[in-house]
Structures are given as C-alpha cells and as structure tokens.
What we know:
The structure is a single chain. The chain is 0% helix and 57% strand. The two termini are 19 Å apart. The model has no long low-confidence stretch (mean pLDDT 89). It has strands at residues 9-19, 24-31, 44-52, 59-66, 69-75, 84-91, 100-110, 115-125, 133-138, 143-152. With 155 residues, the protein is mainly beta. The protein has no helices and 10 strands.
Amino acid sequence: SCFTSTYDDYIVRLVDLVPSSTGADLQFLASTNGGSSYLAGSTYEQVTVNNSTSNAGLTSAGSVGTAVLTFFPNVDAGVEFVGASANINFYNPLGTVLNKSFDWSGHFGLQAAPRKYFQQGTGFIDNSSAINAIRFQFSSGNIASGTIRCYGVAK
C-alpha cells in the first residue's frame, strides 16, 4: 500500500487504465488489514457529476451503502478511446477518529455510447479505522494496461 505514517494526505493518479473486457466498471476497495481482505457490506458512499464530449448534458448521481465504489462505469477497452485517468485526493486515510473521505477528477471512454466523459466525485468510507491498503479493479476481467501512482503530501 502507499499509505504510511509519514504523510496524512495522499494523491493517487490513475493513468490510462484500460480493462481487458469492454464495458467493465472501474471499482475501488479499501482495507484496514494491509490488504488481506477489503471492506464490503454497506461501506461506500459517493456523489458524482458527469458530462460528455457529445454534450449530452450535465448529469449527477449518488449512492449510499454500497459494497464497492464505482469510479467510472462501463469503461471502453477500444484503442479509439482514452483510458480511465484520474487524480484522487485521500484525506487522512490512517486516522482512527473520523470516517474517511476522498475526492477525484478524471475522464474515461464510455463503451455504451461512443463518447468520452469527464467526471468529478466525492467518496466516503463509513469506517473510522485506519485505511492502510487500497485496491482498484475492473468489475470483469483485469486491468489490461495503465499505471497507478501514489504520492504522499508533506505535512
């Protein structure tokens, strides 16, 4: 995991993540035991705002109490699109008093309609334990290509 006691603020960059299967959702999970298992049940909440290159209009969505957090839905694996990319800010993931929060800004190619989407969102982990490992995965198949980077922000 990228989270250590050296920092209390982190930036995770997703760079051109592409699923091995078209139409998979890019998902996020968090762990309190170093990645031996990941939080499930009604743990994750999110609010997102989207717009697309077809200017289909601004849309927003929210979810409460989900077993996994979906960053980007229905991601395209075709070369004519862009990979899923984002900057994600994690605030005090190792804290043990408050539930966890993070926000992101990113883009992805949507498989269901041939367009590119921009998305901003805020997520919450309904758990006050230290989050010491995170996982990104696609809902089906693997991450075929792309890079995930983690940076600690100096205190």
